Every structure is written in structure tokens, then in C-alpha cells.
Amino acid sequence: MSQTIVIKIGGNATDHLSTEFYQQLHQWHQKGDQILIVHGGGPQISNWSSKLNLPVKKIDGIRVTDLETIKVTQAVLLGLVQPALCQHLTANELPVMGLNATGHPVVFGDYLDQNVYGEVGKVTSINQKYITEVLQQQIGVCAPLVVTKAGKFLNVNGDAAAAGIARLIGADKLILLTDVPGVMVADHIVDSLTQHKAQKLLANNVIKAGMKPKILAAFEAIQNGVKKVEITNEIKHAGTHLMAKQIVC
């Protein structure tokens, strides 16, 4: 039975994807699964912002984005990161479509909190008909940018964007790829994590700022119907599995 899978890849990972990653995509695509990749570009955006003497500031893992930084963000994500990722996928003989470059608006949204974050948004709706048509034949690649009703681009945290899209597209699985093998506590991977346990770890500052958006995004997806959510550094490794409720034996 085919499934819909959303994968979030961080900006650092886009140029360093493993052979296992491409093999797994091949297996899923041949099986008829629909695959959507949401890519970040944080390190590249920070690098270019610094070169242009623009401030680089984050609050709880969310980039504060002024009017100049949103221009840099858009240019980096759509002009550098997405084309490079599509090229890597094509080089590995995978059929791919960069969704933001087709002329079709893909993801829509509104401001998260303009007074705090500036030009940062949240996902409110998607062009589901177009995305579904693309995923029937190709692997979709999408940047974490939303378009407002006024036609403005807003930056979205990549994990939050992936969770929002997964929720709206009715995904069966959401995989948040990161640079650690899962949620780490005292140098050990937490195999499974309930929202209650996650809230305790966040309150005690065991889960740091960089992981916080992933945890919040993961549970948002679970609460809105995504059946399986994993945080891992390898697509074939389970890493940390996020659960809606504690399983009592």
C-alpha cells in the first residue's frame, strides 16, 4: 500500500546526503509512495547575511527576519539550495520537481508574530491539487517559504513548514532529518518520546533551542493526523519516534 512521506532536510545536509538516503528514495518511489522533501538553508542564509553585514539572530531556533534578510533568504533558498538539491537527486536518477520554481504558488501563510520575528510566517494552506499531481510522478522539493494573501514571501522555520505541509497534505509519515541521531538526553538517544515527556525535557532545558522547533513541529503534526513522526540523522534509522500518547502495557 502506498503512502505519502514528507522529509525535512536541513541546509547543511543538502550537499551531504548518504547513498542510503538515495536508495531509500528509490525504493519508496518504485513502490508508488508519494515523496515531498522540504529543505532548509539556515547555514547558507547566515553566511550570506554576514557577508552583506545583515544581523543574524534567532529566538528559540527561529530566525528573526527583516526586510533585507527575507530577500537574501528567498535568493539563497530558491537560487542556490533548491537547484543544488534537485541536481543531486537528478544525478542519482530520481525524478524530481522543484516546486517553488514552477510559477505555481505552493504554500500559503501569514505572519507568525511580526513584532517579534519580522518577516517570518506560518503555514495556513497549500496548493494541494498541484502538489498531489506532481507527487504522482515525481519527488517534490519545496522551500520553507509561504506566500501571504498580499503576495509577500515570508520565511518559515523548516521544521514547522514540513509539519504544516505534512498535516495539510495528509501525510502518513514525517521524517525530520538532523545532524544528530535523534533526541539526545545524557548522550543517549531517546527511542520514543511523548508530548508530556518532551514538555518536561524542554522545561528543564535538556532539549536545547536548536531541537525545540523540531519537537514542537513533530507534535503539531501528530496532533493533526500524521501517523508517524521521526527525528533522525539517517533516513533508514528510526532515531526518535514521537508518540501521541504514552503506551501502557
Note down, in words, how this protein is organized.
- With 249 residues, this protein is an alpha/beta fold.
- 37% of the residues lie in helices and 24% in strands.
- It is built from eight helices and 16 strands.
- The protein has an eight-stranded mixed beta sheet, sandwiched between helices. The protein has a two-stranded antiparallel sheet with strand order 3-4. A two-stranded antiparallel ribbon has the order 6-7.
- Strand 12 and strand 13 form a beta hairpin.
- Helix 2 crosses helix 3 and helix 6 packs parallel to helix 8.
- The two termini are 29 Å apart.
Major sheet size, sense and barrel closure = 8 strands, mixed
For the secondary structure, the number of strands is 16
Ranges where pLDDT stays below 50 over 5 or more residues in a row are: none
Bin the helical content.
25-40%
Q: Given the helix and strand composition, which structural class is it?
A: alpha/beta
What is the terminal-to-terminal distance?
29 Å
Query: How many helix segments?
Result: 8
- Mean pLDDT across every amino acid position: 90
Order of helices and strands: EHEHEEHEEHEHEEEHEEEEHHEE
The shape, in one word, is globular
What's the gyration radius in Å? Answer: 17 Å
Strand order of the largest sheet: 5-8-2-1-11-15-16-14
β content, as a range?
A: 15-25%
Give short descriptive properties of this protein.
249 residues, alpha/beta, two-stranded antiparallel ribbon, 8 helices, 24% strand, globular
